[in-house]
Design a protein that fits this description.
Number of helices: 6
Strand order of the largest sheet: 1-2
Largest sheet: 2 strands, antiparallel
Structural class: alpha+beta
Order of helices and strands: HEEHHHEEHEEH
Shape: rod-shaped
Radius of gyration: 30 Å
Length: 162
Amino acid sequence: MTHAWNYILHEFFLFSFGKKVSTSHLNYEEVDQMQKDLRDKIVELKKTGLGYKAIAKELFLTPSAVRHVCISKYNDPDKFGTCKSCGIRIKHTPGKKKRQFCSDKCRMKWWNSHQEEVKRNAFYTFICPCCNSEFVAYGNNKRIYCSISCFTKYKTKRGKEQ
């Protein structure tokens, strides 16, 4: 719950549709439902073309509370998203690619648990100059030897020849 909503709901009065309603007798679910109804009403009025001040006047709220609801995570998926791993809210930067993860830790955790979804296209086939066997390397198109042991054998063999 945001600071503006805490102020509106937990100061024991909710200004809803012109009536002063005491919330002290309500349980959390009822207050939460009233909050959702008020948020939906604000969004509905905003979609009709009313400005923040007009909505605030109609619902007996402050313009800043209306503005907060209108630009919050609930209404604008272009500005906010959720982390694929932990589900936390992420703010998107306008003009840039949308973020999928909140941190490197979440990104690596998610990809390690969803390895079947990784499109692995960088497979390269080579022939080892030491043992003449064919091997496949992933992600390195400049690899020469199939293993470290072939690398050391080939380098020591060449060192003795010189």
